[in-house]
Design a protein that fits this description.
five-stranded parallel sheet; Rossmann fold; alpha/beta; 6 helices
Length: about 150
């Protein structure tokens, strides 16, 4: 049994790389959003034309990015959503809700200071992890039945 895992959420740390590296040897395919912040912000206007109003600039980018996000979440067996310390990740909360609505297995990765704010998101998840290593351990257990040594 292999897993398709979509890695959603904050883009300011290397948590994705930690999970991908830790999962080496497991039958896992990872996908995720474009993590180049500039490309993600400007894809709509670069492809579809400039906008003088920042709202429409951002809106075009969000729509183009949503094509990738919807496909990645729809094809995923497991969706991991990371809520980081920096900035508010409204997009991550949306991705978590979308994944939950599609009945996807949802793993939330968050710090203790977000526990209260994310209580409804956590309630929709099958697991809430504190570290990327815990996510890897969940994936390893799901695929092999092996507990951490």
């Amino acid at each position: 049994m292999g897993l398709n895992v979509y890695l959603s959420g904050e883009i300011h740390t290397d948590w994705r790389e930690q999970i991908i590296e830790g999962a080496q040897g497991l039958d896992v395919t990872f996908t995720g959003p474009v993590t180049d912040h500039g490309a993600s912000d400007d894809c709509g206007v670069t492809i579809l034309g400039a906008e003088s109003d920042k709202y429409w600039h951002d809106h075009k980018g969000a729509m183009v990015n949503a094509i990738r996000t919807r496909k990645g979440i729809a094809d995923a067996d497991v969706v991991v959503v990371r809520f980081g310390e920096k900035y508010k990740q409204w997009n991550a909360a949306f991705d978590a809700g979308y994944a939950a609505a599609l009945g996807k297995s949802l793993v939330i990765l968050q710090q203790p200071e977000h526990d209260h704010a994310l209580k409804e998101v956590d309630a929709a998840a099958l697991a809430m992890a504190r570290t990327p290593e815990q996510v890897v351990q969940i994936l390893r257990y799901v695929l092999t039945g092996a507990l951490p040594g």
